[in-house]
Design brief:
The complex is a heterodimer.
Chain A: H1 4-19, H2 26-38, H3 44-55, H4 59-73, H5 75-88, H6 109-113, H7 140-160, E1 164-168, H8 176-182, E2 195-199, E3 204-210, H9 219-232, E4 237-241, E5 245-247, H10 249-252, H11 257-267, H12 277-287, H13 289-292, E6 297-302, H14 311-323, E7 327-332, H15 345-350, E8 356-359, H16 363-372
Helix pairs in contact in A: 2-3, 3-4, 4-5, 7-9, 7-16, 12-14
Chain B: H1 3-10, H2 17-29, E1 33-36, H3 43-54, E2 58-62, H4 69-72, E3 74-76, H5 78-87, H6 94-99, E4 106-108, H7 110-115, E5 122-126, H8 133-145, E6 147-150, E7 154-157, E8 163-168, H9 176-180, E9 183-186, H10 192-202, H11 208-222, H12 232-244, H13 254-259, H14 268-284
Parallel strand pairs in B: 1-8, 1-9, 2-5, 5-8
Antiparallel strand pairs in B: 3-4, 6-7
Helix pairs in contact in B: 10-11, 10-12
Classes of the chains: A alpha/beta, B alpha/beta.
């Protein structure tokens, strides 16, 4: 039998976990109490492992749990451990303060190889890499993880456009189940056969990705996301632009990420320069629109909206694109920042043509893109 | 060491304490267990070992895209139904037609088979992340109520509650509804001590020094920035390959080792990365 004081502590712990993003319902709570009360000799390890299995739902919660458990139930041990960890942990370096920035299409291994995990990294779900602004992820491992997650997330689009089955009267593959059902009145003799056909209609995406200097903090994440989208939708096309526009669909289809990075960097010499969004879109409209835009196309523009061209010029180009496509989604990494104001003239000019204006600073922010696409 | 720990060890599976506790919880609460982790860390093997321990049937459902109810739960035996209808000499009534949708014409698929066993089996739903979301939704009834609804027959309740193990490689996000119905365990790569024990169990004729060197090498290899890190299965393959080639000491057979790396490195990219830059560094980590 569990005493009231102890059950109160468990409830408190459940509240702490909920605040950190864990989903703890009544079932989890009662099961936790039941399990602890059943233990003949409860010790730190068995309690930790039991509560972890009951209260965690994914890898990140699993990895954070031990720290939260120790700091709640054994605060003295936790503070000792934290002290020694902080002595051993190298000073965290924010990317903005560092000497150089991450690579174009992925994080540069050598730059962050020596950095230790930030102590904040495991502090709670709010601070995990899926929620964190990519430009503030300050170690190589976390950045790589976020990039991988972004690509995996984009691949979920494949599941949304999964194969469907349809029962029809003509076809190649007879559906015995439906045929028998249909012909019960004829004693099972298949006078009216039923056929099943499979069909898959992946969305046709056109990705226009700004790779100018102002986007470089978030681009490693966004490149992987775009690559995932292209892999998930075989008929899609991807373009990158700064002052000029290039088609990069083939590069995104490279099996090796390293090869994709190398080719991206070697093929384009004006990375990290200024931005001419309107001029680049005009180039797209002149050379690629005919072959890529169609009434079921979903256009995804990835840009922070800093443009050297006139806003009216951009509006006219966007109007053309919008008129030939189904949906226009604008992903803006700046939108995830608290300091962002919607006073940017470029974005104000573009707004009437945008169906969804979505932040793109973190993996979680990108998640909504998948579900906002009209498939 | 708990009883379960000893039983698993005797059946060739080396668990860690967290897994043991989770398995005990699974027994006590009759809840399914969702195990996530990279490929090759031993997620499927635990189900096989549990089946041996409980001396029960292991029913495995391998998930894939477009897996549907007909393949996973039940199907009607259509040819038998047709034969039966034709044997009735055109004298069919409503009750005859209902007759063809009963147990006699029902084909059991893994999930239905699992809940109709007298002795609780181990039900392994492998790589759930490969199946569609709709299939995941279908599983919810089975995992929470241990029952399956068949429109023609009604609801079939489990005769005994199976021990359900669901594995996922994390290629897509699973629904919260599914996660909430399961206990959760994240299976990471084994630490040095556990990996050494695993090798000792699987390759009993290996000498201690070589065992330790293999563990050192593999652990250092996993710390590299590889696309596909070697799992436990790869470690065992490599150990057996080295034993087969008569290697007694890794450091004395460096050239031979580099030729056997195909057991560990499964992509061209990783192969080039290790062979060009890091092989010597890996040998330095070997004691």
């Amino acid at each position: 039998m569990i005493n009231t004081q102890f059950s109160d502590r468990i409830v408190e712990f459940a509240h702490l976990l909920r605040n950190k993003g864990h989903v703890i319902g009544l079932k989890e709570l009662t099961d936790s109490m039941h399990i602890i009360s059943e233990m003949k000799q409860p010790d730190e390890n068995s309690t930790l492992h039991s509560l972890r299995s009951l209260c965690c739902r994914n890898k990140y919660e699993w990895q954070q749990f031990e720290k939260m458990f120790t700091s709640f139930w054994y605060p003295h041990a936790a503070s000792r451990e934290a002290k020694s960890t902080s002595q051993n942990t190298e000073t965290t370096i924010l990317k903005q303060q560092g000497k150089s920035i991450s690579g174009i299409a992925g994080t540069t291994t050598n730059l962050f190889e020596t950095m230790a995990y930030s102590t904040d990294y495991a502090a709670g779900k709010q601070n995990t890499i899926t929620k964190a602004d990519f430009r503030f992820l300050n170690n190589h491992h976390a950045m790589r993880e976020a990039e991988n997650l972004a690509e995996k997330l984009a691949l979920q689009l494949k599941a949304r456009s999964r194969t469907h089955r349809k029962i029809v009267s003509k076809g190649r593959n007879m559906d015995i189940r439906h045929t028998i059902r249909r012909n019960m009145a004829h004693g099972g003799i298949p006078l009216h056969p039923a056929f099943s056909i499979k069909y898959k209609k992946p969305p046709h995406l056109v990705i226009l990705h700004d790779v100018s200097h102002s986007m470089s903090w978030n681009n490693p994440l966004l490149f992987r996301f775009a690559r995932g989208l292209i892999k998930a939708c075989p008929e899609s096309e991807a373009f990158v632009f700064h002052t000029r526009l290039f088609c990069v669909t083939k590069l995104y289809r490279e099996k090796s990420i390293q090869q994709m990075r190398n080719k991206l960097e070697s093929n384009n010499h004006l990375w990290l320069g200024g931005t001419c969004i309107a001029e680049s879109l005009k180039y797209f409209n002149q050379h690629y629109a005919k072959t890529t835009l169609r009434n079921n196309a979903i256009i995804i523009i990835i840009s922070d909206g800093f443009d050297t061209d006139a806003p009216e010029y951009l509006a006219s180009q966007l109007k053309l694109i919008k008129s030939k496509s189904k949906q226009l989604i604008w992903l803006n990494p700046m939108l995830g920042r608290k300091t962002y104001t919607s006073g940017n003239r470029t974005m104000l000019a573009a707004k009437p043509f945008i169906d969804h204006f979505i932040p793109a600073h973190s993996v979680d922010a990108l998640r909504s893109v998948i579900y906002k696409m009209k498939l | 060491m708990t009883k379960l720990n000893i039983k698993l060890l005797t059946n060739g599976y080396v668990p860690d304490t967290a897994l043991i506790t989770t398995l005990e919880l699974m027994e006590n609460l009759d809840r399914p267990l969702l195990i996530e982790g990279d490929a090759g860390v031993g997620k499927t093997s635990i189900a096989i070992a549990l089946a041996k321990i409980h001396d029960c049937e292991l029913i495995r459902l391998q998930c894939y895209e477009n897996l549907d109810v007909q393949t996973s739960v039940y199907e009607w035996n259509y040819s038998k139904q047709l034969l039966w209808i034709n044997s009735q000499n055109n004298q069919k009534s409503e009750s005859d037609i209902n007759h063809i949708f009963n147990e006699e014409f029902l084909l059991e698929r893994p999930l239905l088979k699992a809940i109709r066993q007298k002795k609780p089996p181990i039900l392994l739903i492998d790589e759930i992340d490969r199946a569609d979301e709709s299939f995941e939704a279908f599983l919810l009834e089975l995992l929470s109520e241990f029952q399956i609804s068949i429109p023609e027959l009604g609801t079939i309740k489990a005769e005994s509650i199976p021990r359900v193990i669901i594995t996922s490689n994390g290629t897509r996000e699973l629904s919260d509804a599914l996660r909430r119905r399961c206990l959760y365990h994240y299976m990471d790569y084994p630490d040095r001590e556990r990996e050494s024990l695993i090798i000792e169990q699987a390759v009993p004729n290996i000498n201690k020094k070589l065992n330790q060197q293999i563990v050192d090498f593999i652990q250092a290899l996993r710390a590299q920035d590889l696309r596909k890190k070697p799992g436990v299965a790869e470690t065992l393959d490599w150990s057996m390959a080295l034993i087969g080639m008569g290697v007694k000491d890794l450091l004395e057979s460096k050239e031979l080792i580099s030729k056997t790396l195909s057991c560990l490195l499964k992509t061209q990219e990783d192969w080039e990365f290790i062979n060009n830059n890091r092989l010597e560094e890996l040998f330095n980590s070997v004691s």
